[in-house]
Design goal:
Blueprint: E1 19-25, H1 31-45, E2 56-62, E3 68-69, E4 75-76, E5 80-81, E6 90-94, H2 106-117, E7 122-125, H3 128-134, E8 143-144, H4 150-156, E9 162-163, E10 168-171, E11 174-177, H5 182-194, H6 197-206, H7 231-242, H8 250-256, H9 261-272, H10 276-294, H11 299-305, H12 311-322, H13 326-336
């Protein structure tokens, strides 16, 4: 940390530090992740809900002042050109859709590298960690990403340490979070460290958040195997999730938990009411359902990810499982947001 960041206020009795955060928004960034982070700062910066920049300040910085379109279509205008990155205590890169080929321009990458050279801590918000990793800025740091993006991060950056079990991570000069409401949790931690606990409490109360979660809290994903209390069933279903493309033969799956195929099938029927093959199919369909709701990936790409040879076969199986086509599910998810 840089010298000015040692002005920590843990009990509210010392002179409050002014926390300055610069936001870099990618093309098709996630609006909710950005809004929750910046609103936590806004509400912590002043008493009640007056929005004064008393204890914190923030800017949306960019290579141009052109509007940046979020993944939901709402546009945000940068409020500052790229300035000396040392003016900020943190620079947060807010990512979005992974299907965007060039989420930021080369000037932005240069700016982030300048910030790194000046020891300004960088934070990847949502898939912003992918942008930092692609720029070579996550070496020797552990990344935290959503469970939904874990596989793709591993494929893109096999040499980097990554985890998808926690909400967010602060690793020396880097921060990263899964996105969504975890953005508010990470911002609340910064507020508590650099402003005060009272400021954090004020922000969370106005946001109707009962309590900020910590870096050790688990991502709120409820896997299918949580419904069952048999250790062998859980182990088998965890393995199914790890091989969501359907490439794990049932015989090998049974051997991995110390059973024959017939024994595994008998236990699955007894404990889950379905065969291992049907459970495996359900795991794959649940993963496809999540991807459909949270990305704009084409159907064929999702079909291949979960082990189908073509989109029509995938569509038939999806409709048989959930009673609607993948396109209908995606449209309903968009309306809900």
């Amino acid at each position: 940390m840089r010298p000015e960041q040692h002005r920590l206020v843990d009990d509210g009795t010392k002179q409050a530090a002014r926390l300055k955060v610069g936001f870099v928004l990618s093309r098709s960034f996630t609006l909710s992740a950005f809004a929750l982070f910046v609103d936590t700062l806004r509400l912590a910066s002043d008493e009640q809900d007056r929005s004064g920049r008393v204890l914190a300040d923030w800017q949306v910085i960019g290579s141009t002042r052109h509007l940046i379109t979020s993944s939901c279509g709402v546009q945000v205008a940068p409020t500052s050109d790229f300035v000396d990155p040392a003016r900020f205590d943190y620079i947060a890169v807010v990512g979005g859709l992974l299907s965007v080929e060039n989420p930021v321009d080369q000037q932005t990458i240069t700016f982030l590298k300048q910030a790194d050279a000046k020891k300004v801590p960088l934070i990847g918000v949502c898939t912003g960690t992918f942008i930092l990793a692609a720029a070579g800025l996550m070496k020797r740091h552990e990344s935290c990403v959503s469970w939904l993006h874990y596989k793709e991060f591993r494929e893109r950056f096999p040499e980097l340490a990554v985890r998808s079990d926690r909400l967010f991570n602060l690793d020396r000069q880097r921060g990263s979070c899964a996105g969504g409401s975890s953005s508010a949790d990470m911002a609340a931690l910064l507020v508590r460290k650099y402003i005060s606990r009272d400021a954090e409490r004020n922000a969370l109360e106005v946001l109707q958040i009962e309590k900020a979660r910590t870096p050790s809290d688990i991502q709120p994903r409820r896997p299918l195997y949580d419904d069952y209390d048999d250790a062998r069933v859980k182990a088998a279903m965890i393995t199914m999730e790890q091989f969501v493309d359907g490439s794990m033969p049932i015989e090998k799956l049974a051997a991995m938990v110390g059973l024959s195929r017939r024994q595994l099938e008998r236990i699955f029927i007894e404990k889950t009411g379905m065969s291992p093959a049907k459970a495996y199919n359900r795991v794959r369909m649940e993963r496809a359902k999540s991807i459909l709701a949270q990305s704009k990936a084409p159907l064929i790409e999702i079909a291949l990810d979960v082990g189908f040879e073509n989109a029509s076969q995938f569509t038939r199986t999806f409709k048989r499982t959930f009673g609607q086509t993948p396109s209908q599910h995606r449209a309903a998810a968009l309306r809900a947001h």
